[in-house]
Automatic annotation (TrEMBL):
Belongs to the 3-hydroxyacyl-CoA dehydrogenase family. This is 3-hydroxyacyl-CoA dehydrogenase. Residues 200-280 form the 3-hydroxyacyl-CoA dehydrogenase C-terminal domain. Residues 17-196 form the 3-hydroxyacyl-CoA dehydrogenase NAD binding domain. It comes from Kribbella kalugense. The lineage of its organism: Bacteria, Bacillati, Actinomycetota, Actinomycetes, Propionibacteriales. The chain holds residues 320 to 620 of 703 of the full protein.
Amino acid sequence: KRPAGAPDKSLARPVSKVGVVGAGLMAGQLALLFVRRLEVPVVLTDLDQERVDRGVGYVHGEIDKLLAKGRLRSDKANQLKALVTGSVDRSVFADADFVIEAVFEELQLKKTIFADLEKIIRPDAILATNTSSLSVTEMAADLEHPERVVGFHFFNPVAVLPLLEIIRADRTDDASLATAFAVGKKLKKSCVLVKDAPAFVVNRLLTRFLGEVSAAVDEGTPIPFADKALSSLGLPMPPFVLLQLVGLPVALHVAETMNRAYPDRFAVSSNLAKVVAAGKSSFYTWPEGKPVVDPEVEALV
Ligand code: 3HC
């Protein structure tokens, strides 16, 4: 059955090579998913060889873990590893059919990357963005072929969570959207078409939720108490642990985007802003795998 809003699947173009811009954690998770489900060459790029090697190393390491768990046979694991390569030179995307960016959440950076990619990739290759909250329409605005730009928003951990928000920008055409849905289906994700609005659908709810929990902390509830209260309600993960999984700078960035878009409804949490400014990646330290509020964080919030 065709997902709601998906164009006729006969319009979809084949995807036999994938490019991933960025080789950070999100990009690595995407590369792993694409190679596992599509079994096509997946090439990662980043600013320097060290980052590229780390990204490729992450994917290879995750494939090894799947092998150790008995989820992959060794011939398949070797085949998948050989399909994942990296380069600092984006010209490796010249014959890619689908290129997704997963770089830092900065609109101008993403626009510059898309403009640069357009000089390299074929005019009908899909340009996808894994942005958490930025306007996909704006990202495509100055391109020669804005009709091939789609939002492809995954959720952390990418290998586990089934949801994929597919975002149709103002000028995305049916063939590109059909290709996005066909890829999403092969990735075995539950694809939902969402409007290109700030933070799409899920992150606006999540931002509101995490913002309210942070406000409770600002008002005096200690972090572990807030986490215990909400995890005892049956959530899969306590909110301040979830913030660490999402990435504190990403969470702050989404909150700032929402605050700009809807100042009357979204506040930027002061404790999150302070902790990010202090360069922390978590509210907790994890001695023996148990969460203990970081004393430096305690002093800040
Ligand atoms: N990366 C990859 N795989 C992971 C993982 C991670 N970070 N964390 C857990 N897993 C895998 C485990 O390996 C395990 O796989 P297996 O069954 O093959 O061995 C499976 O997930 C289940 O893990 P566990 O049994 O250890 O733990 P849980 O059952 O508690 O599940 C969880 C862990 C799936 C992370 C769960 O706690 C959860 O769903 N948390 C909420 C996550 C969430 O809400 N994410 C959305 C964030 S918003 C976002 O990403 C959007 C962005 O734009 C901000």
